[in-house]
Each structure stands twice: as structure tokens, then as C-alpha cells.
Design brief:
135 residues; 16% strand; 3-stranded mixed beta sheet; alpha+beta; 3 helices; 3 strands
Length: 135
């Protein structure tokens, strides 16, 4: 059976490769999840309003931060004629995008761990075969 040190080392290598191959578009410090995420915010006062959109491939911490930021903007910026209609749609859309991104992140972690376990099992089996041939 593989030690936890080997498992941790392979996990670090996997994360490093992920960061190189698919970096987060905001922080560039971590690997992005595999699905594109889109958040929208609306800030309205009386007859004026601004609409902001953010779309891309982001890491987990950036997804959490941007979801909270865009939700906060939507909750404080609904004071407008068009905003009364847009804000609930944006809030629901952001919640759905956030849930989808979290599920994709968990799926990616599960796949990575399964791959590492499979790799360690194959390594242990190869070592057993070599030791049985040597005896």
C-alpha cells in the first residue's frame, strides 16, 4: 500500500501540472476548473444602471470571491425600474452557475484522486511483480 507521503507528493505534482496547463484567468496561481463560469451583476439607481459580466475559467477561491461580490452588488443595487426585473434573474443565474462550478470542482478532485490511487496501485503491483521475479 502507498504511503500518505507518496499520495501527497503525487497530488502536489498533479496540481502543479494543472496550474501550468490550465491556469485561473484571474489569479493565475491555481489551476482552473474545467467548466466556464459566468457571473452577472446589476447596479441600478432610479433611471440609471450598470451591468457587469465576468466569464471565464477560474479556480475555486476566485469563484467563491466573485460569487460573493456579484451577489452583494445585486442585493444592494436593485433600486431601479429595470433593475427590479434584472436582479432576480441575475441572482438565480449566479446561484446556478456557482452550484455548477462547485460540482465541476468536486468532480475534478474526485477524478484526480481516483487517478492517483490507480497509479499507486499499478506501481505497487509492478513492485510486487519485480520482487517475485527476483526471488
Amino acid at each position: 500500500m502507498a504511503s500518505s507521503d507518496e499520495r501527497a507528493k503525487l497530488l502536489r505534482i498533479s496540481r502543479g501540472l494543472d496550474r501550468l496547463n490550465n491556469p485561473c484567468q484571474l489569479c493565475k496561481q491555481r489551476g482552473a476548473i474545467s467548466s466556464k463560469t459566468h457571473f452577472a451583476a446589476n447596479f441600478g439607481l432610479a433611471f440609471t444602471r450598470t451591468e457587469n459580466h465576468l466569464e471565464g475559467y477560474f479556480c475555486g477561491p476566485c469563484i467563491h470571491k466573485k460569487f460573493l461580490l456579484f451577489t452583494f452588488i445585486n442585493l444592494i443595487g436593485w433600486f431601479g425600474i429595470v433593475s427590479i426585473i434584472k436582479v432576480p434573474m441575475f441572482l438565480l443565474s449566479n446561484i446556478a452557475e456557482y452550484e455548477f462550478a462547485i460540482r465541476a470542482m468536486l468532480r475534478k478532485r474526485k477524478q484526480r484522486l481516483a487517478l492517483i490511487e490507480d497509479l499507486l496501485e499499478k506501481d505497487a503491483q509492478a513492485r510486487r511483480n519485480l520482487s517475485s521475479r527476483g526471488s
